[in-house]
Amino acid sequence: MLDIQIAAAAPPPFVRREEYRPPEWLVPEIALDFDLGAERTQVRATLTVARNGDHAAPLKLDGEALKLISLTVDGAEADYNHEADELTVPIAGDRAVVETLVEIAPAANTQLMGLYESGGILCTQCEAEGFRRITFLPDRPDVLSRYRVKMTADKARYPVLLANGDPVGAGDLADGRHWAEWHDPFPKPSYLFALVAGDLVANRDSFATRSGKTVDLGIWVRDGDVERTRHAMAALKASMAWDEKVYGREYDLAVFNIVAVADFNFGAMENKGLNIFNSRYILADPDTATDADYDAVAGVVAHEYFHNWSGNRVTCRDWFQLSLKEGFTVFRDQQFSADQGSAAVKRIEDVRALRAAQFPEDSGPLAHPIRPESYIEISNFYTATIYNKGAEVIRMLHTILGPEKFRAGTDLYFDRHDGEAATCEDFVKAMEDAGGTDLALFRRWYSQAGTPRVRASLTHDAGAGRAHLTLAQQVPPTPGQPVKQPMPIPLKIALFGERSGDKLADRLVLLEGDEQEIVLDGVGERPVLSINRDFSAPVVVEAERSAADLAFLSANDDNPFARYEAMQQLMLDTLIAAAAGQTPDHRPVIEAVEQTLTNTDLDPAFVAEAVLLPSEAFVGDQMLVVDPEAIHRAREALRADLGTELEGLWRSAYSAHAANRFEYSPPAKGARRLRTVSLGYIAASGASDAPQMAKRQFDNADNMTDRQGALGILVNSDAPERAAALSAFYDRYRADGLVLDKWFAVQALSTRPDTPDAVAALAEHVDFTLANPNRLRALVGSFSVNQRAFHRANGQGYRFLADMILSVDKLNPQTAAKLVPALGRWRRFDEDRAEKMKGELQRIVATLGLSKDVFEQASKSLA
Ligand code: 0A1
Ligand code: ZN
């Protein structure tokens, strides 16, 4: 027998920031002519190309999975070389018209990149490098073109034909087909191209801009879903008004359309004038969406709309600059959402999300600066670091400069770079020029990865009436960056008199070096330190404050975020001690929670967040070696004590916040939240009527927030009400994909010990599919963040996840790759778990035919 050795394929190459070169060819004009069909689509592309600079290089076009039928240059057949994913065309002069005809198969596109089919709708996703799966083009963000798009399709199947810009013509053809043509006057990179063809209906509205132009708005969905777009439409109009008011940014086309599709790799996409959304961020009504879903809809609608300026009018020069548009736009959507309801609760939620997703990333094998130096697959860099830490970096600029100078900076940035592909450096420079502030050191936030740790120690000299605050920072090593420079860290601090409760000092400190000492006068009584108020910097603060001081701050600090933070720290210290085998006193936490719960001056929405214990995963993140079982036990014990000791208060809060009828308003939302949090504590107390109470809430709910809240409590119990509620929920919503996702997610997040087995069984359920990213995230994504279940000591969670990654990779590499980081946290666990996790990563890396998406994440996770 012949012994054949198959050489392993060469690992895919890195793209490096320092290798950026301007494009050799520009494409000022593009005309696209689509003959659309699900099985087969033909694309005729007419590119006007122009040599950029003095060179003799041929034209190079990107193209992936395209069947090339013909190519002409200036109307004549021409030579070309088509190799791998590149088409090389020699061009004699400095300008030419290149026409290609290609064929693609949207229905066979399971990657959901390029032109694909979702629920019978044809739609596109081009960011970052999906356009090359539609036709040949220099597919890079610094090549900006004016697009004219014509679409022809079967009229019965695809009655609605949408593209970027404004509609300029439409007509019927003889054979049951029809056509439409759209022109976008704004030059844009290919990643912002979009088209949609489908049987859609619209919620139509209009918006009058501040200069008096009328914009026609349309949110396009499947028939029957229009009623569920009201909230998204309200959010869109609010966003348009907000961007005019807060940033002076007006919308620039006569039409703005949004389309919702069920199959989408991310949340949504800001294509010029034609945003395409994952339907979960558009559709909402009280029966199917929770308050959190409503908030997410508004936040994502705002985010995509704001990209019209921060991303589209000023785009990115190359993908290393991704945070230029994403960090800034997340900051803008966070500001917008803060303005719509409770700013304090919004800040708590944003910081919680940062700590849950970005801090672990920044301390693990996939850590990267917000402006990365290299990548294998750019899709892997749509990360919490680029988005959420990126937003924190913009927020720090806002804090350091103050709102007026910050606004002068954004005005200057938009003026200077309108119509251009810009860099992070351009943004910082605009801030520097407008603010008159030297940001030389601040630029380190763009180049250095890792979460800085700040040690704070306070001493007090009562005689002199003076306090000394010593701040020292250390930025931990990250892959490729063993040694770090100190970062400029803006810290909002305050001192409170322990006896009087008075605020003795309140200031913004900019920690610039390794260490700094601050002298605070007028401090006669013993001060208590409040630091990183509002979470003014994305750092970890180690301030070594006693339980008494933290309890004091949780009751007296006038900064709501700092108050929340003090409570969290108190809870965290208690849980860490317990997980480490000590028996800490639960009293300080119980008393602080009682204090908060009985303080009638506080907003119930805030109270609900403040009394929640940190997640098991967050407790784990603080430990050298994560012990999932010990953390779970410690947290359940504290929950039980809080439930029992304060049972009367939880019961009063539960009844006090009952509502007769659903209402969507900030106070009503706060009441619902506190009610379900209280119910959770009643259940944690072990009260025998808790399952009935939860079942009653579940049965009587007139909204999804209460229903899902009750289900989320029941799903952790052994009571018979559990199965009854799960099956009632399934029967009622089995036809609604978005709600069914909740049914999968809630079970994958259960704290019950049988969750790993339940999840494995759910993966075999008729309604489970690997093809829909939302469904996959609901089951597998949720399971991978359920610390105790995923890290079951026998390794079954790891094996399950790796199997899923490998199966999904064959269909949709982007979505598969997003599941890898959970396995990459092996260094944080005991040897036995670490070996098992590494074993799965090794199995993944050794798999033939692996995508570069998964290869990059898995190989880096092992390094
Ligand atoms: N720019 C979008 C995010 C996005 C990125 C890649 C996508 O491809 C699958 C889709 C969307 C945003 O920030 O909303
Ligand atoms: Zn974005």
Task: Give a quick precis of the structure.
With 863 residues, this protein is α+β, with helices and mostly antiparallel strands. Helix 10 (560-579) packs across helix 14 (628-645), helix 19 runs antiparallel to helix 20 and helix 24 (796-811) runs parallel beside helix 26 (831-845). It binds O-methyl-L-tyrosine and zinc ion.
Question: What features would you describe in this structure?
Answer:
One of its GO terms (biological process) is proteolysis. Residues 232-444 form the Peptidase M1 membrane alanine aminopeptidase domain. Residues 450-543 form the Peptidase M1 alanyl aminopeptidase Ig-like fold domain. With 863 residues, the protein is α+β, with helices and mostly antiparallel strands. The protein has four domains: 15-199, Immunoglobulin-like (Sandwich); 314-447, Neutral Protease, domain 2, CATH 1.10.390; 453-537, Aminopeptidase N, middle-beta domain (Immunoglobulin-like), CATH 2.60.40.1840; 591-862, Peptidase M1, alanyl aminopeptidase, C-terminal domain (Zincin-like fold, Alpha Horseshoe), CATH 1.25.50. Helices cover 40% and strands 22% of the residues. The strands form eight sheets. Strands 6-5-9-3-2-12-15-14 form an eight-stranded mixed β-sheet, with no helix packed on it. The protein has a five-stranded mixed β-sheet with strand order 17-18-19-21-20, with helices on one face. Strands 10-11-16-13 form a four-stranded antiparallel β-sheet, with no helix packed on it. Helix 14 crosses helix 16, helix 17 packs parallel to helix 19 and helix 19 (720-733) packs antiparallel against helix 20. The protein is globular and about 90 Å long. O-methyl-L-tyrosine (0A1) is lined by residues 125, 127, 265-270, 303-304, 326, 382.
